[in-house]
Amino acid sequence: MAERFSSILVANRGEIALRVIRTAKELGYRTAAIASEADRDAPHAKAADEAVVIGPAPVGSSYLDMDRVISAAKESGAEAIHPGYGFLSENAAFAQRCADEGLVFIGPSPRAIELMGDKAGAKRAMLEAGVPCIPGYQGTDQSDEVFIAEAEKAGYPVMVKAAAGGGGRGMRLVRSASDLPAALADARSEAENAFGSGVLILEKAIEDGRHVEVQVFGDAHGSIIHLGERDCSLQRRHQKVIEEAPSPAVDADLRERMGRAACEAAAAVDYQGAGTVEFLLGEDGSFYFLEMNTRLQVEHPVTEEVTGLDLVALQLKVAQGKPLGLTQDDVKLCGHSIEARLYAEEPGAGFLPSTGPVKLWRAPAGVRTDAGIETGGEVTPHYDPMVAKVIATGASRDEAIRKLTKALEDTALIGPQTNRQFLRSLLKGEAFRTGDARTTTIDRSEAWKPEPARLQHLALAAAIIHARRRDENAAAASLPEELRGWASSEALYSSVVFAGEDDVAVRIAEAKGELVATLHDRSISVRFVSLGEDQGLALVDGTRIPFSFTVEGATIALATADQDLTLTDLTQVASGSGEAGGIGAVTAVMHGLVTEVFVTEGDRVEKGQRLAILEAMKMQHEVTAPVSGAISALPAAAGKQVAGGDLLLQIEPDTEE
C-alpha cells in the first residue's frame, strides 16, 4: 500500500506534543506544531520542523478552534493530524472535518469516537452487548427531577459525570439528596466549558474499587489486540496521580478475561488505532465497564515500558492503513513500570494550581521523563497544570518503586509550586507499597501538609546566601579565590533573617572553608563540596545533601530530596505589615475567570457559604465565606478575569467574630 502521508501536524501542546513529535521525527516524518500566542516559544513549538501560531491563549480561540487547526495544517503542508490527548482528540466532528478536508486523522473513526467517547451512549451500547456496567442513569432526559429520582433508585452516594470528556472534569461525588442540585449545576457548567457539552450521566458510587484499564489496538484489517492493563487507582478528585503496569491486583486469568472484554468492546465499533477501555475492579475479581477513551492516554508510557512497543509508532502505522503486524501471542509483559504525574499545584493549599515563570527545571537521570517545560519558560493559568511525567521501570514492582522514589528526589522544578513531595509520600505510603490502593485512598486520607522547614535546610539556604555574597564582593574587589573567606583574626560572619510566622535569624560564621550556621541556639556546620550557579552538594553536619537553588533579590528557592522551600531574607528587604482588607477580605487564590457570583452587595452570609465560582486551568473552584457577616463591597462579577490576590468581595464580619 502506498504511503498516505509523510508530514504530520501535532494538534496539541506540552509533553504529549513533544512525545508525538519525537517518534514522528525518528520515523522520518516532517512535523508541524500549533501554538497559542502564550505558547509561541514553548518547547513543543521549538521541537517541530515548523510551528504555526493559531490564536490567543484561551483554548476556545486556539487549540479547540477547528478552523484554525485545519488552516494550520494546510499552511504547513501537513497531510495528517495527530490530536494527542485532550483538546480535539475525542471530538468526532473534528475527525470528520479532517476526512472532509482530505487530511488523515491519526485516531479512530468519527463513528467510534462519537459512540465510545460519549459515556451515556457507550454505556447503553455496553449494556446491550451484555458487558457488566455500574447501575445508574444514562438517559436523554437531563432534567434535575429525573436525576433526583434516579439517584434515589440507585441509592446514595452517587457519582455525577459529564457524558463527554474525562480527566475528572464535570464529575461530582454526591452523598445526600440535598447536595445533588448544586452538584448537577456545577458539573454541567464545568463540562460545558471543558467539552462543549453539559450532558450528564449518573452512577452508583462504588468507593472502594480499583481503577484498572486495558490498552487496546486495532487496525483497518480487522485485527484487535490488547497490550495488558494499567492500574490507575491512586486518584485525587477523580484525577489520576500515579499509574502502573501491570496491576498488582490482576493475575493471568483476570488479565485474559478483562483483555477479552476490552477487545470485544472495541470490536463492536470496528475500532482502529489506540484506545483504552476502563473498568472498575471489585475485590472479588468482578469488573464493570466505566468508559472507553478513544485516544492515547496520559499514562501510555508504562505500557510502552513493559511491552517494549512504541504506541505512537503503532498509531502512525495503523493510520497509514497498514496491518498492525502483531498478534495477541506476540504481546509479552516484562518487568514493572510506574508513572508519577508532576503537577504545578500546591498540595498544602488544597491542591490549588500554581502558575508563574519556571526559574529552574531539572529532570532526573536514569529514568524516562516526558516533560513540556524548560528553564526560562512559564506555567500559565490557561492550560492543564500537569507539566511532566516521571516514569521508572524495574525488573520487579519493588525495584520500580525504589527507582521512581529516587527519581522524584532528584527532580527539581523551581518557580511554581509542585506536588513532588506529595508524590514521594504516596510512594512511601503503605496503601501503595502493598499494592492495596483504591480510588478513594487519597481523598479519604488526611489533608497533606508540607513538612516545616528543617533547621539543616535553613542553615544550608543561609550558607548559600553567605557564600554568594562573599564571592560577589570578592569578585568586585578582584580578590583571589584562595583568599575568599580568609580572615587574619576571628572568623568572618554575616546574618540572614528568613521571614515567616516567626522570623528565623541565622548567623553564619566562616573559618578555614567551613561555615557554621547558628539558629535556635543550635550550631550546624555546612561545607560545600561543590556550589554552582543553580546546584551543588553540601555536607550539613556531615550529611551529604545534593540541592538545586535559585536566588533572585531577597528570595532563595531551595530544592532538596525531601523539601522544597522558598525563603525571603529580611536583611535584604524591608518587611511589610498586615494584610489589606483584614479578615473579611476574600481574594482570588490564583489567576482565573469569575464564572458565577451567588451574592449581591448588602447580603448577609454565613461562614462557609458559597459566594462565587473561580475557573482556572479548566477546573472550577468554589469561593466560600471565611467569616459570617454582610457583603460590604463586591468588585467581582461574572465574566471578569482576575489575578491572584485580587479582591473579589469584602465581608464586614459579625461583631462576635
TrEMBL record:
* One Pfam family recorded for the sequence: Biotin_lipoyl
Residue ranges occupied by any Biotin carboxylation domain in the UniProt entry: 4-447
Molecular functions per Gene Ontology: ATP binding; ligase activity; metal ion binding
Question: Cross-referenced Gene3D superfamilies, in alphabetical order?
Answer: 2.40.50.100, ATP-grasp fold, B domain
Is Transit peptide one of the keywords? yes
Lipoyl-binding domain location = 577-652
Cofactor(s) required for function per UniProt: biotin
Q: Which UniProt keywords apply?
A: ATP-binding, Biotin, Ligase, Nucleotide-binding, Transit peptide
Q: Which InterPro entries match?
A: ATP-grasp, BC-like_N, Biotin_BS, Biotin_carboxylase_complex, Biotin_carboxylation_dom, Biotin_COase_C, Biotin_lipoyl, CPAse_ATP-bd
Q: Which residues form the ATP-grasp domain?
A: 123-320
Record's protein name: Biotin/lipoyl-binding protein
